[in-house]
From TrEMBL:
This is DUF2079 domain-containing protein. Keywords: Membrane, Transmembrane, Transmembrane helix. The chain crosses the membrane at residues 27-45, 94-114, 120-139, 170-188, 218-236, 248-268, 321-338, 350-368, 388-411, 431-449. Residues 79-415 form the DUF6311 domain. The keyword Iron-sulfur does not apply. The keyword Kinase does not apply. It comes from the Bacteria.
Amino acid sequence: MPTSPSVAAGPAPASPPRAVRGRRADLIVVLAALALAVWVTSGMWRDPNVRTITVNSSDQALFEWLLAFGGHALTHGENPFFTHLINVPDGVNLAVNTSITVYAVVFAPLTYLVGPPVTFLVILTLNLAATAIAWYLLFSRQLVRSRLAAGVGGLFVAYSPGMVSHANAHLNWTAGWLVPLLIWRLFALRRPEHWLRDGIVLGVLVAVAFSIAAEGLFFTALALGVFLVVWAVHPARRAEARAALPTFLRGLAITAVVAGALLAYPLWLHFAGPQRFHGTGFDPVVHSEDIAAFGAFPRRSLAGQAGLGTSLAPNPTEENSFFGLPLLLLSVVCFVALFRRADPGRRATLWALGVTAVIFSVLSWGPVAKVDGRRTDVPMPFDLLGHLPVVNAALPARLALVVAPLIGLLLAFMVDRLRTHPPRHRSTEAAWALGFVVALLPLVPTPLLTDEREPIPRFITAGTWRDYVSPGEVLTPVPVAVDVYPDGQRWQAYALAHRQGEFRIPAGFFLGPGGPDGRGRIGPVPRTFSALMDQAGRTGLVPIVTDGTIREVRADLAYWRVEAVVLPDQVHGAKFEVDEDAVRRTATALLGRPERVDDVWLWRVPRS
């Protein structure tokens, strides 16, 4: 008889133990997550101190300032939730802004060592990688058996179009690693033997999440609330939910007590402190998701690079859905396939996932529907909720960010099913593989667009400013610092991080009171001096200056207690080129001839 190939070859080598294969899979996912994070942020790694995110350099400058201020507040015993360093004389309530206090404190040594721009880039890169790893761990340890399935789901969520879009300088929204940790610890509250400890851990995590991404925490709580209600009322899970409810509520009460104690002061500042506001100055219709955007492709993706991207988002940082039609179709097919083969308990989970996805998709459409860039008069459910406290401070388009993790979980479930119950026919297996490739390949992210920004003048870096501004007194760049002119806060961040001392600035980039109907606005209400400088910088035209104008300008400078007005040779405009010559001629008409100090023009302002 002929010898069989298996016998001739000898005994087959033993497969590696499951634990070894698991660790190997974990390592591959971690390396893939880090590689993608560096890839997305690669444009800034060439020179973090010079490169800036093209489409959102204003937010980048703001977060760099927050990192510098947080470290300064920690080392100087100052209030990390309220500051008078900007928006002189009123100050800014940072508790109602995105203060990222935990990041500022934890990374303070790095900020002092290498400066805020590098710290910003390190956190942004780690945020993306940690988000993928955290979702992978939740999926692989709690929800699916296949590490491949967990890897597909985790990497998709972390590098979904919405996350890559918010990687354009949003350190709060890219901290998506908080969400799987919150989910993990919330469901741990069901354990009767550890409800006290689990409640304390979740309470601390909630406090951390509030200090990094309060809006994201709010959305996570809403999504989990909807999911749990739908899951618990399903007939297949009703008895289980009823049995776990007493323990769950005890743990949740401990969570509320711990989080409330840790956040008592920030919450008071948020809702009752000085310089608070209710709602924002952002138009919810403008910042709502276009229905067609769900089937569109994002700009920072392979599909976008091929010319298939769209401009359906209000700006490049708010592409919160943009899943593309292939992925939407794949998600529906996965849902149907899983639902048909699921036991009643799994069907309850799938039903809750589907309902949550639909609810948050519809809410993201805002007060009225928009389709392919055209606003309709069809009212949407958000119109009924958008006036409620807290909800009125959220941008409806961002509710679509909840959908990406739900799709990621659906993909993980499907891959897990295919791995544990392979299709009978190879053609079916190939069709599924092709479907995943067609749906996911176009969404592979491309690097963020970056550019060089104007350098911080030597007048600041050399500390020369201290010869012209008394300790703790006011210096203002021109144009005056606001979101589109971030120089003032960039300079201040440099001075704080390099321990040069403090100078204060009028205005700044922040959310504060003063908007229509008592809502918030970006920066303070403009005064004559700031409006004239802005006009000159934008248009290149020197305004007509009268004696009355000069009196108003002097009153503004006295109100702010400005000692020095400074114009660098190159002004960074976050949205447009600034005409420095027109600004200089306007300031000269208002304040007289400047003096040249290092690489800036300087006007001294005598105290009246």
